[in-house]
Amino acid sequence: CGEGLLYTRLLSRPSLYLGLDISAAAIDKARTLGAGPFLCADAEQFVANDTYDVIVFNECLYYFIDPVGTVGRYATALRPDGIVIVSTFLQSRRGRAILRALKRKHTVMDETSIAHGGRSWTCSVFTPGARG
Questions:
Q1: What is the CA angle 13-29-113, rounded to 5?
Q2: Which of 78, 57, 77 is nearest to 68 (CA)?
Q3: CB 3.0-4.6 Å disulfide test: which of 30, 53, 59, 118 passes with 4?
Q4: 67-89 pLDDT, tens per residue?
């Protein structure tokens, strides 16, 4: 969740939000925003004790040892009809490879791309589960 930027964008929508980040400094700053909760945790090792409508991986999968397996593990914490949203920096070779692997494993519901200053990102919405 970093310093809570996404959280601030969601404030107008009533929902429960759980933010994770491995950086204690980022979590300390996010906690100044109020609600949360915000937890300092290794997202690749964290085990959810609740279920969620949406799980977002915002520019973090590149840092995981097993990003596709981690997404699959989190998908088990989704409520029926829940989705996973993944933001990917397309200039990252590893990011593109992870995105291709996720598309082989999960169904893409929607996807959009943005380019700025010669750089580009894709935001993909997945319905978890085996394809085919």
A1: 55
A2: 57
A3: 30
A4: 999 999 999 999 999 999 999 99
